[in-house]
Amino acid sequence: MRLERFNSEGLEPIGEGEEKIVFLDPKNKERVIAEAKESDFLERETPRQLKGRYYLTQIVHLLLPENIPAVYQASESLDGLQSVDAQHIPHTESHKQLVGARHLYKERIAIEEEVAKEIGKEIHDLNSKLADLGFYLEIDDDLVNYIKDEKGNVQYIETFKPWEFKDKGYSGVLFDEKLLRKAIGEATDEQVRKKCNSHLERLLTLFKEEEQELKK
Questions:
Q1: What torsion, rounded to 10 degrees, do the Cα atoms 72, 193, 165, 156 define?
Q2: Inter-residue contact 6 to 28 (CB < 8 Å)
């Protein structure tokens, strides 16, 4: 676990989205660190949401280890920097081109068409698996969030937001709890079932605490 505050100054990002910038961990090339952007236009996650993101993503990783990278920690520094440490999935050449063409509309469209031809079916199959686990509300299906790894598996490299708030009101969790519990119960590995159930209970405890605090 990385205990100190992550300092990205002078580092070249390997990916960037609307909400975060991703860097290769300078101390461990097998990991990446996604640093949340700070903006008045972006909704800041609460510490509980950030922890919930860790637990939820780990559950999905345990159930779909060939398609969802592991996460190692989600944290907020004393000065408010939020970040998530995750498994590094090396970029393919097409993924590098997608990232590089982020602000170039015509070029990006052309690259997306090629990527869709290359791994479109695998992405569809993975999204179907995620829907079976209860994730059909919050999947960001931008092609830049999918990478085919060295073994030929398509990886969804986004993490999973557990719940959200809208208009200062509670809007609920962003997954189907019944479907997720069903999938956990059907896992053949007993240790996977135990870990997933433990993570889910911790997540739901955080959620209930957040809900109670919102009602005050």
A1: 60
A2: no
Q: What is the mean pLDDT of the chain?
A: 91
**177-185 and 47-63 are packed helices; what angle lies between their axes, rounded to 10 degrees?**
40
CA 80 to the chain's CA centroid? 20
Among 98, 68, 91, which residue's Cα sits nearest to residue 150?
91
Q: Regarding predicted confidence, which is higher, 5 or 9? A: 9
DSSP structure string for 117-146: HHHHHHHHHHHHHHHHTT--SS----GGGE
Q: Is 197 left (phi over 0), alpha (psi -120 to 50) or beta?
A: alpha
- Which residue, among 64, 50, 76, has the nearest Cα to 160 in the 3D structure? 50
What's the rounded mean pLDDT across residues 120-138?
Answer: 93
CA distance 99 to 144: 7
